[in-house]
Amino acid sequence: MDPVRNPYAPGAGQRPPELAGRDRELDVFDVVLERVARGRPERSLVLTGLRGVGKTVLLNSLRSQAIGRLWGTGKIEARPDQSLRRPVAAALHMAVRELAPRHRAPDRIDDFLGVLKAFALRSNQANAKLRDRWQPGIDVPVKTGRADSGDIEIDLVELFTDAAAVATDVGTGVALFIDEMQDVPPDDISALCAACHELSQLGAPLIVVGAGLPHLPAVLSAAKSYSERLFRYQRIDRLDRIAADQALAAPAEREEVEYEAKALDLLYEKSGGYPYFVQAYGKATWDHAPRTPITPDDVRMAAPEAEAELAVGFFGSRFERATPAEREYMRAMATLSAASRGDDMDIAVATSEVAQALGRKPASLSPARDALIKKGLIYSGERGTVAFTVPHFGRYLRTQP
């Protein structure tokens, strides 16, 4: 079939042609937006899940919903080596710029931007030379005495409160979207929780929508004990069979192409229902199929190509980031996971079992484990256990020499 008409999109954060299986999350966020618009108390939102389940795609879709309701929005991608000051300043600058044309008092906008500029400038080192000092692209005078104490928790609370006040003036809200939220530095994640706590008590129209790996709730709980009640948590998992079939069949139907039922059976078996894999196998199958309907033989012919692409771009790139000691640790995890489950689905394994399999003391393996967690290759959902952040990663490792 014509590869130009191939509808599938196996890209990082790239919206698939059919956003299947996420209606519940979209409906929940619609309720959140409506409740905030009516002055009702509402919690910020946190999405968690493995790599490849579509968290970033969903985060972008939720942002589109907020924009559709004329909210001011901004988005950042957290990094473990970067303070929140600069990215949050840039994101809220964008959000308020979206609200500014509808505000009746330009001076009120300028006052907030002056506070925002003061907040952003505190990211500069006090002893930095003038040429090394970062300047935010905010063309108003700095307004001192607000959000510029240097204490990120105090400053973030004041900044969010002022941003919410601007949104209240316009009769709408502000939403800050944070991807890879588990990578926010510890002091900053604590400050973020405190700011969300303050906003929830005030009923202010500013919400945070975060997305991250499965251990994100534990990260938030370690920062502030009340965080488990502060956010509405939604786990984003693989698609069920109906949704996976819809993700494949609906785009094909728009191109006047059909699948045989057994072809969809095989595609679900291969992909496991993980959205990224659904798109990868769908794309390869389309390119190999000579005509409609697509058959199981077409899927079998295309599967090696899809698997080769995943091995390089999805699995291999992550494997290459690990040191030899870290790779040894992950191989032991993969072997133990298969032995416990007896199939290709990876499960959490005990760190003590990993140490036993490698003939090492658990304490001696802590550096490798901690480095893998920091690199986002594994996570610890429960104390004393570890699991892969990437679905089917254990299966990939078990195929490597």
UniProtKB/TrEMBL annotation:
The keyword Hydrolase does not apply. PROSITE patterns: CYTC. Keywords: Heme, Iron, Metal-binding. Residues 1-20 are annotated as: Disordered. Residues 168-334 form the Cytochrome c domain. InterPro entries: AAA_16 (IPR041664), Cyt_c-like_dom (IPR009056), P-loop_NTPase (IPR027417). GO terms for molecular function: electron transfer activity; heme binding; metal ion binding. This is AAA ATPase domain-containing protein. It comes from Asanoa ishikariensis.
